[in-house]
């Protein structure tokens, strides 16, 4: 399996569950980035390896042939079949060469307009407030916003409510919503139960909840997701359920 994102992890677990010998190759240093932090990514790796899935991180593919996969460092992994789940990365070179502001993708505002007049971008190639989009539903909404503006009737700008991402692997509970990459002024609160292996991480910006990461016990996912765009001041108590034993939190 090549690719350690959500689909790659789910596919690797499914193949292993059906009896296959599975090696998961991922170019990043942590699985499911940017939906996880370093701690959750390593915990996920440990749980996959406990199931017999070999995880090889921070590697680059040099070639795929009839015998298997060869890495840039010379290692070779024999394989009867190779499954790719490498995701989408915007190719914004043409836009950048034309003077359009590009970062992770082509930077646009909520009316889908780029930094140069007359040039717009939607879908997988665009970036809004540091976020790119690889799902169909938000891309369709972007098309509607752009169509309204081009027809001379601009409406409300693009807004997408993040419902979160839940890993679909039996026995491994992981949920991520909102932002996980912390800025210099952001506050991070975490809790870790080493016995039950429950991990919670909240990202706060200006005192408001802006990111949720749960692993193990994900029962609070819906309640925390509903608070993501709220103006309600967040507190460290949100790490815990009222009925639960409260381990020490780190801020």
From TrEMBL:
Coiled coil: none annotated. Its EC number is 1.18.1.1. Its cofactor is FAD. Keywords: FAD, Flavoprotein, Oxidoreductase. Residues 2-132 form the FAD/NAD(P)-binding domain. It comes from the Bacteria. Residues 165-230 form the NADH-rubredoxin oxidoreductase C-terminal domain. Pfam families: Pyr_redox_2, Rubredoxin_C. One of its GO terms (molecular function) is rubredoxin-NAD+ reductase activity. Belongs to the FAD-dependent oxidoreductase family. This is Putative nitrite reductase. The gene is rubB.
């Amino acid at each position: 399996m090549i690719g350690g994102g959500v689909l790659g992890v789910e596919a690797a677990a499914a193949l292993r569950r059906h009896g296959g010998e599975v090696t998961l190759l991922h170019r990043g240093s942590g699985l499911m980035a940017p939906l996880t932090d370093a701690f959750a990514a390593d915990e996920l790796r440990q749980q996959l390896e406990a199931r017999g899935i070999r995880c090889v991180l921070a590697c680059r593919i040099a070639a795929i042939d009839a015998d298997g996969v060869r890495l840039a460092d010379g290692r070779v992994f024999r394989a009867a079949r190779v499954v790719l789940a490498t995701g989408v990365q915007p190719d914004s070179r043409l836009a950048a060469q034309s003077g359009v502001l590009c970062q992770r993708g082509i930077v646009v505002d909520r009316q889908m307009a780029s930094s140069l007049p007359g040039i717009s971008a939607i879908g997988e190639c665009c970036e809004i407030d540091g976020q790119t989009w690889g799902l169909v539903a938000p891309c369709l909404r972007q098309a509607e916003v752009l169509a309204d503006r081009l027809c001379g009737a601009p409406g409300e700008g693009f807004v997408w409510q993040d419902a979160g991402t839940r890993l679909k692997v039996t026995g491994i509970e992981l949920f991520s919503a909102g932002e996980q990459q912390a800025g210099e002024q952001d506050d991070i609160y975490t809790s870790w139960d080493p016995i039950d292996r429950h991990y919670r991480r909240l990202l706060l910006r200006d005192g408001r909840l802006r990111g949720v990461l749960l692993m193990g016990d994900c029962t609070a996912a819906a309640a925390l997701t509903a608070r993501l765009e709220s103006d309600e001041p967040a507190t460290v108590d949100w790490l815990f359920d009222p009925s639960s034993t409260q381990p020490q939190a780190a801020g």
